[in-house]
């Protein structure tokens, strides 16, 4: 029997950005501030209509997190964030909810960020990527190193809890340059850091015109540098690419990694919701204008399907094994409705290869396993 989680996370997709970066494969659409202003109110009204459609399904749940992602959500007017948050708050208590806003340094506005804090947003995630101007230019970021540092100082005025997104394995990046990025990030005393390895994804410009990136061996050395430096600064490496000061792990992302339920609203958003002893996935049409049209027709998702029971072990482990501290076997059973003992034989090769550690309650990747998650998942197939 699949246990319906008592909590749910809400993801809100705001799909516009000033410039689409060549490595980005997210559902984002280039638009000027003026163009965003011309459509944002109608779009937010559609978000509210979509949320209201799902309210009956989640009415008995606690909303533990709301995450405004994009695109560049900070392009949206604060008054519209207030309208959306108030609509959610009407029937749900958000007093203990983690509410995160993604932002880019190139769109920072002091007055807006004060307003964001006043209306209940309590966490900001800044897309820095690098403090090196040469690398920022290569990544086609619209901010400079100076602007990135200024943006962090602005955020620190209004938010105690903030994350910095950075990348390693950049074209022509040296270990010394990465060390400078790490040191600079730490100097701002963030509560959370995300360090992503640059990967060349299909449907991106970097995939069509591939830059020269560090070799796998060099990237491995870079990742070990990140691990060592952040450990020395007392960051807990709690997820493959995430590091936090004690008590500041991202609640929203932890919900994903533990195979929790989440409601995604907005163009291209995805949802995973448990009910009637099944787990359903839904996704929305990607085009923002088409999304508004479909919501006006009361069409609230473009696809809906239940996850077949045979796929649940892989789906769960694909997420949960990103957690360096692992997961309880009880959580596995609650979220999948399956016995952990049923998959142990498929995990045996990973134990033999020293990729997994098990005790009577916990399963987690070893230090080696953290770096070879795909190998563990391959053993499941």
What does this structure look like?
This protein starts with 6 loop residues before the first strand and ends with a helix. The chain has 2 domains: 7-256, Aldolase class I (TIM Barrel); 310-380, Winged helix-like DNA-binding domain superfamily/Winged helix DNA-binding domain (Arc Repressor Mutant, subunit A). Helix 1 (33-58) crosses helix 10 (288-296) and helix 13 (344-352) runs antiparallel to helix 15 (373-380). It contains 15 helices and 17 strands. The strands form 4 sheets. The protein has a 9-stranded mixed beta sheet, with helices on both faces. It is of the alpha/beta class. It is 41% helix and 22% strand. Helix 3 links the parallel strand 5 and strand 6. The radius of gyration is 21 Å and the shape is globular. The model has no long low-confidence stretch (mean pLDDT 95).
Features:
22% strand; TIM Barrel; Arc Repressor Mutant, subunit A; 15 helices; 381 residues; 9-stranded mixed sheet; 41% helix; globular; single chain; 3-stranded antiparallel sheet; alpha/beta
């Amino acid at each position: 029997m699949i246990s319906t989680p008592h909590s749910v996370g809400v993801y809100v997709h705001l799909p516009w950005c000033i410039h689409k970066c060549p490595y980005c494969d997210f559902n984002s659409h280039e638009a000027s501030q003026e163009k965003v202003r011309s459509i944002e109110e109608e779009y937010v009204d559609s978000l509210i209509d979509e949320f209201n459609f799902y309210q009956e399904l989640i009415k008995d749940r606690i909303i533990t997190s709301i995450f405004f992602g994009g695109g560049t959500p900070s392009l949206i007017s604060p008054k519209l964030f207030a309208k959306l948050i108030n609509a959610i708050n009407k029937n749900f208590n958000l007093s203990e909810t983690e509410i995160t806003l993604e932002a880019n340094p190139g769109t920072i506005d002091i007055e807006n960020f004060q307003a964001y804090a006043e209306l209940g947003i309590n966490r900001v995630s800044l897309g820095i990527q690098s403090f090196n101007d040469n690398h920022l230019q290569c990544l086609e970021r619209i901010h400079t190193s100076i602007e990135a540092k200024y943006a962090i100082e602005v955020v620190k005025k209004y938010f105690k809890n903030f994350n910095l997104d950075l990348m390693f394995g950049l074209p022509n990046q040296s270990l010394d340059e990465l060390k400078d990025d790490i040191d600079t990030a730490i100097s701002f005393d963030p509560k959370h850091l995300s360090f992503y390895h640059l990967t060349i994804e299909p449907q991106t410009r970097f995939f069509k015109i591939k830059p020269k990136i560090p070799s796998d061996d060099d990237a491995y050395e870079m990742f070990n540098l990140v691990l060592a430096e952040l450990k020395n600064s007392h960051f807990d490496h709690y997820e493959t690419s995430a590091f936090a000061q004690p008590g500041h792990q991202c609640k929203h992302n932890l919900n994903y990694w533990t195979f929790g339920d989440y409601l995604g609203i907005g163009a291209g958003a995805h949802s995973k919701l448990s009910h009637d002893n099944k787990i359903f996935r839904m996704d929305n049409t990607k085009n923002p204008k088409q999304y508004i049209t479909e919501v006006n027709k009361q069409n609230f998702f473009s696809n809906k399907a239940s996850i077949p029971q045979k796929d649940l072990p892989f789906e769960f482990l694909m997420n949960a094994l990103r957690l360096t501290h692992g997961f309880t076997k009880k959580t596995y059973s609650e979220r999948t409705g399956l016995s952990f003992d049923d998959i142990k034989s498929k995990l045996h090769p990973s134990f033999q290869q020293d990729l997994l550690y098990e005790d009577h309650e916990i399963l987690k990747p070893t230090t080696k396993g953290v770096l070879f998650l795909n190998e563990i998942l391959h053993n499941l197939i």
